[in-house]
Amino acid sequence: MTTARSTVLVTGGAGYIGSHLCVELLQAGFQVIVVDNLCNARYKSLDAVERITQKPLTFVEADIRDESALTRIFRTNDIDAVIHFAGLKAVGESTEQPALYYDNNINGTLKLIEAMQQSACRTLVFSSSATVYRSPPELPLTEDSPTGPSNPYGRSKLMIEEILRDLSAADPDWRISALRYFNPVGAHPSGEIGEDPAGPPNNLMPFISQVAVGRRTKLHIFGNDYDTHDGTGVRDYIHVVDLARGHLKALDYLAEHCGMTVHNLGTGNGYSVLDAVRAFEAASGVTIPYEVVERRPGDTAASYADVGRARDELGWCAEYDLEAMCADAWRWQSRHPEGFGVGGEDE
Ligand code: NAD
Ligand code: UFG
Known about the structure:
Blueprint: E1 7-11, H1 16-27, E2 31-36, H2 44-53, E3 58-61, H3 67-76, E4 81-84, H4 91-96, H5 98-117, E5 123-129, H6 152-170, E6 175-181, E7 183-185, H7 204-212, E8 219-222, E9 234-235, E10 237-239, H8 240-256, E11 259-265, E12 271-272, H9 273-284, E13 290-293, H10 308-314, H11 322-335
Parallel strand pairs: 1-2, 1-4, 2-3, 4-5, 5-6, 6-11, 7-10, 8-13
Antiparallel strand pairs: 9-12
Helix pairs in contact: 1-2, 1-8, 3-5, 5-6, 7-9, 7-11, 9-11
């Protein structure tokens, strides 16, 4: 059972979403242990978390596939809940290296489950993704919309959800929450932590930020002939701090409910690429040069969530709007043009 004094293990906690979650957990009074192999993050993010919160956390540098490291963490700590972010997330790379993605994401989760089974901890929040839904989607996407991911990354997320569902069916003591994130963007309002992709960003918002700060020359807009209000792709962008807070609500929910649940975490609003460019220009005062190019293979015209279940069951709603997402992303990017040093240089 988790309460505000509980100890939470955060896998992948040095990463983008994980570091924002650590801030929220520490501020709510939880004890936090992070396990991360730093394959896509720097320890500096956790230093910043401690600076923001003025509270310490415990960091273990290890791969979640390392059974002995995980067993040691569970043996030496009384862990009440696990929030599981550790995973690889680049859609294109997953198509090129599927075995790497299945090993890291699925095998990593199995090792985590094994270590949890050897301990008394049966509470798990899992980072799933809107990418598990079938494309083209029926909008808005509810948790009951048909699934059917179109790439190995998405399939790894859906397979993990299925493994977790089987686990909770076999043992009713498990309390599992799968959170399907829509498009997490923005940064902590302090400007001390934010998204720091390695190499040229695959995703829209970090690409726009890096153009604004002068690390990239222009944005390529992938198609303006979609059936959307201005022809560019529409997505449900959600502020990373709102997203992080959704995890605390999921922990509260699991304290009262056994079994497995699935919730969409989004705002329910769809914004186009051009809406995002304009909002970022307004927040930063910088003009974003762009060129419209071919559609990106695999992209869907529009995707946004029905957030009714999260509102009704978790008592959670996103609070920040697109303006705040852009303002906070810009504060982070302009104060830390090179991020934490994970990312690559100019094209
Ligand atoms: P991120 O890459 O910033 O964070 C993931 C962290 O996990 C990194 O710090 C990385 O070093 C660590 N990691 C990866 N494999 C590991 C392993 N085997 N052992 C230990 N640590 C490992 O990504 P993020 O954006 O913070 O995403 C967190 C989670 O949310 C991921 O599981 C991702 O698939 C999921 N998700 C992200 C998005 C998004 O757009 N950012 C959308 C939907 C779902
Ligand atoms: N886009 C551009 N130019 C870019 C990058 C993106 O025009 O340089 C467009 C895309 O075509 C799309 C929109 O911006 O219309 C958003 O693209 P993102 O890559 O930012 O986001 P996606 O919705 O394609 O995918 C993201 C993550 C997935 C995750 C999904 C749902 O990459 O891993 O959100 O959470 F599954």
